[in-house]
Amino acid sequence: MPNVEVCLSPDLLHLFNLRKKNVVVVDILRATSCMVTALAHDVEVIIPVASIEECKFLQKQGYISAAERDGLKVEGFELDNSPFSYQNEDLKGKKIAVTTTNGTQAITKSVEAEKIIIGAFLNISAVAAFLLEEQRDVIILCAGWKGNFNLEDTLFAGALIEILQKQFTVEQDSSLAALELYLSKKTELLPFILASSHAKRLSKLNIKDDIAFCLQHDTYDVLPIFHEKELRNYKINV
Ligand code: 3SL
Q1: Residue 24 CA: distances (Å) to CA of 4, 74, 95, 127
Q2: What is the Å distance from ligand 1's center to 162 Cα?
Q3: Are 42 and 173 in contact (CB under 8 A)?
Q4: Looking at residue 236, what is its pLDDT?
Q5: Cβ(27) to ligand 1 under 6 A?
Q6: Which of 25, 37, 81 to mutate to test ligand 1, by most ligand atoms within 8 A of the CB atom?
Q7: pLDDT at 207
Q8: How far is the CA of 28 from the centre of ligand 1 (A)?
Q9: Ligand 1 within 6 A of 119 CB?
Q10: Mean pLDDT of 10-31
Q11: Ligand 1, atom 9: nearest CA belongs to which residue?
């Protein structure tokens, strides 16, 4: 049986061997939830980049650009990091360049993986179905916050493992811990997450609706895969 492991922070990624494995990158609040929402609303392609400078460069090439640092939109860019900003007909068929504090860093650090899949509660069943079909070892990479562990990404890891566990071995302590955390909190996700550090950070920005939205399961049947620097929805393109 293939194995599923959890990397609780991008700063721990050097401890994992990504080769020939599928990596699921998750940043529930809010980068990967935004990416899933954007592709579900027919954005053609997303280019996630690590730095503001790279995003600026792509903006000059004609990409619509989104930049977030510490939860706030960076001045000079068109889009912020709210999933509601991507539910916009005007973005249909458009190419978006995006940089965020943690999510896009986690994606760009995963390039040695066989495939990089973007996960969120919003598309968890589509991600699980793909991983079950692939039957390949999986690492769930939690984007965390500036190198630190966070609750919301770990809960997603646990939720995904709950689905995968019949066909994947779950042996590593962080995978077992993520699963137990999710099982103990799955019926009260919103109040639990509202007490988390990042929800408190975001509440200062008055975006409680974003948090509730990002915790919804299976709103979208999309499968974003990062390949050759581009993120596309492989549910429609393959
Ligand atoms: O860190 C990130 O990538 C962001 O998702 C953070 S925030 O939700 O925009 O604050």
Answers
A1: 10, 27, 22, 8
A2: 25
A3: no
A4: 59
A5: yes
A6: 81
A7: 81
A8: 8
A9: no
A10: 98
A11: 71
Structure tokens, 184: 């103990």
Nearest-angstrom CA–CA distance, 158 and 181: 7
Beta-strand runs (E) in 70-207: 72-73, 95-99, 115-119, 138-142
First to last CA, the chain: 26
Regarding the beta carbon of 71 and ligand 1, being less than 6 Å apart is answered: yes
DSSP secondary structure of 65-92: EEEEETTEEPTT-SB-S-GGGG--GGGT
Residue 238: its pLDDT value, please? 46
Distance from residue 101's CA to the centre of ligand 1 (Å) = 6
Q: What mean pLDDT do residues 54-79 have?
A: 97
The size of the chain, in residues, is: 238
Residue nearest (by alpha carbon) to ligand 1 atom 6: 71
198 CA closest ligand 1 atom index? 10
Residue 202's pLDDT band, with cuts at 50, 70 and 90, is confident
CA 119 to chain centre: 5
Share of the chain above pLDDT 70, in %: 99
pLDDT at 235: 82
Could you tell me the distance, in angstroms and rounded to a whole number, from the CA of residue 63 to the centre of ligand 1? 20
Dump strand ranges (E) for 55-203: 64-69, 72-73, 95-99, 115-119, 138-142
Paired residues of 142 in beta bridges: 26
The DSSP secondary-structure symbol of 90 reads G
What digits encode the pLDDT tens for the residues 136-163? 999 999 999 999 999 999 999 999 999 9
